[in-house]
UniProtKB/TrEMBL annotation, chain A:
Pfam family of the protein (one): Mal_decarbox_Al
InterPro entries recorded: MadA, NagB/RpiA_transferase-like
Lineage: superkingdom: Bacteria
MF terms in GO: transferase activity
Protein's UniProt name: Malonate decarboxylase alpha subunit
Annotated source species: Bradyrhizobium daqingense
UniProtKB/TrEMBL annotation, chain B:
UniProt-listed Gene3D superfamilies: 2-enoyl-CoA Hydratase, Chain A, domain 1
GO biological process: carbohydrate metabolic process; fatty acid biosynthetic process; malonyl-CoA biosynthetic process
Annotated source species: Bradyrhizobium daqingense
GO cellular component labels: acetyl-CoA carboxylase complex
Keyword list, A-Z: Transferase
Lineage: Bacteria, Pseudomonadati, Pseudomonadota, Alphaproteobacteria, Hyphomicrobiales
Domain CoA carboxyltransferase N-terminal: 1-250
MF GO annotations: acetyl-CoA carboxylase activity; carboxy-lyase activity; transferase activity
Keyword Cell division appears in the UniProt entry: no
Protein name, entry field: Malonate decarboxylase beta subunit
Source organism superkingdom: Bacteria
Chloroplast keyword on record: no
Amino acid sequence: MTSWQNNRVARDARIAAGAALARGKVVEARDATRLLEAVLRSGDRVCLEGDNQKQADLLSRALLAVDRSKVNDLHMVQSGVVLPEHLDLFDRGVAKKLDYAYSGPQSARIARMLFGGKIELGAVHTYLELFARYFIDLTPHVALIAAASADREGNLYTGPNTEDTPTVVEATAFKDGVVIAQVNEIVDQVPRVDIPADRVHFIVKSDKPFFVEPLFTRDPAAITEGQILTAMLAIKGVYAPYGVQRLNHGIGFSTAAIELLLPTYGERLGLKGRIATHFALNPHPALIPAIESGWVRQIHSFGSEVGMDDYIRARSDVYFTGPDGSLRSNRAFCQTAGLYACDMFIGSTLQIDLQGNSSTVTASRIAGFGGAPNMGADARGRRHPSEPWLKAGAEADPDGSALMRRGRKLVVQIGETFGDKNVPLFVEKLDAIELAEKLKLDLAPVMIYGDDVTHIVTEEGVANLLLCRTALEREQAIRGVAGYTDVGRRRDHAMVARLRECGVICRPEDLGINPLDADRSLLAARSIRDLVRWSGGLYAPPSKFRNW
Amino acid sequence: MIATKDIAPAERARSTSFNEASARTRLELLLDAGSLVEFIGPEQREISPHLKIFDLPEQFDDGIVIGHGRLDGAPVFVAAQEGRFMGGAFGEVHGAKLTGLLRAAREIGTIPVLILFDTGGVRLQEANAGELAIAEIMRAVMEARNAGVKIIGLIGGRSGCYGGGGLIAGCCSALAVSEPGRIAVSGPEVIETNRGVEEFDSRDRALVWRTMGGKHRRLLGAADVFADDTVQDFREAALELIGSIGAFDLDRLKAEQVRLADRLRRFGACEDAIDIWTAEGIAHAEAVPELPADQFIALANRIGRASRDAR
């Protein structure tokens, strides 16, 4: 007779094997490796929770220590490859295949290991893609997750960094998988239930809190006058004319400058309430002055940020918080919000080519995609109208029927023509293409495709690509704001002048901006100390950002 | 929109961060409006003879502005290091300009000197010339003081006051410092490199500031006045110090020796600045770094160990 519940039987057997090491659901940290040896089977798909911020570091080390004769050739399906242990697994042969989304701190090593054949690569995804595949063809057999606390039944409190956890648990627990959580503490009652106990099979108490990195803190003291100028151009040249209220910001210094100019420069332009009111955004400390000045109505977050907990708790009108008062973030929902409910994405990149394709890949690094491609892409499934979306759509297709025309999301790339260490932002050919050729990838790792990009903002001006009608116009519009880079110097001056006349390119003076006014005194906060002051002492920056 | 240049000078001085301003802006706003007259200005292009050997960019004033001007109507000599050029480091020309200014002050004998430090120490690329310059400057400071000149250091720049700059600061008649200002000889990275991260974690910026930062230096008496981080506050601090510095003689040097020996005896065993503050009887010493300027100044005036007899 055909059995239709083989997976459930197998899952129960795994849990039974693990239960021998547990008291109830609780397993001692020293037994974590034995637990994994009991529960895992060679070749399993395993999600080792590596988020942007919250890392299952104890379980990573425990997995690295398993007996290879018992557990090997795992297929890791995780959003972030962040800790060194995540890659040590492949060096040791515990894991063989990898599907992931983001590898910021490990980007150089992952490139070497891919090239050396140490890792069999499935694909590099965006967050939403990988989450989607958890429910179709990459469902984990075992999920190793991290939470702040658990009660003895296994109810989990993730803390403000809920991030990927609900998505990973949903896919694993409801498809006959096993969920193992490391927690910082075991308590009688969790502050709130982020993950209900019946989805959690084992709890391991970690000897020290999981590792959290402040990834979204930009010190205002490091913002340059060039970045302030590009921020002024963006506010006056893009935010204002489209009336962008719902948006997502990247995490670079240019967008931090925009956040710090809203209560000063934006206020003087009379834009309060008309732009930048609703965000899909991590709790950026740089946004505190705009929040305190009453600019921002609502923010939904992918994850949290170190030091922002008390501030968020006290500003629940702005942030999403649980009944316990602390932030509830959720990467899958926030990515969806950024894709469908935001009218603009604005962010920095490392390279832009002549078609407007951009990439953060350089010759020796594969940082992965994370969320930017979902934020920075037109949502073809979008159906609700909004003013910026309709206006952008009309600019792209002025002759189309208004009732049948698609709107367009504003996808804005912002940066100085020469970036960090004077590396040019504009290139004839992306390094990503060379890398794809070298590694024989099916696709070059392009962060944002040129056909999604609507505006490029540099210190030389704003290029509105929606108004370009031909590939040649587009190329010259890009060259026309590329400054003294090789790409910029090879512009056709006559054509660039024509593009300026018809408003495709706007120079600072065309927008009534004097570059000499781009002064640091315009920033609402010029130091981390100022941000603390703005927050009324509620923001507690990590020590590495202090100068007092 | 109002451009910054249209705002009245005093208002600008109040709204301009000393920490962020350039050397020239600091002097422009510190002195009476329009009174600065520069010596050996950038138009004379007295540049470093060493940097081009290393293919490094030069600056026409070699990173220091010297000159004279007026403070509340009274004449002063001024020197301001540009911390954004090579971290304000001392090179041959840079040092010679300051030495010359101090010798001029010595010859005249009655005009105070304000030194706006913003330096990481000596330029590695011209180390011998730079070290010699430090020695010359220290001598020139002491000779000028001996001739009756008041020499005041103002410290609040981004590069702090390190290396030879810290030594020169120690020779001045008095110092004013702000919260972001730092005063020391060996920098955090140098200490970590030589003594290990257990001794000093240079990336723990809270540790760096409570060890070398303005508040600690004020509480220890190493700085005489604590200024909020605006150019106007430093102007007022300079005026206060000019009005309060006493005569320089052997008794004063002896008093300084006693003050330093006493400090070492009382706090030599302390592991951390917080221990020192606690030993000074400050309740909630760990909260000192968070205190706003006005509250801190009140605290420092109550217990700060500056002695008007010493230095």
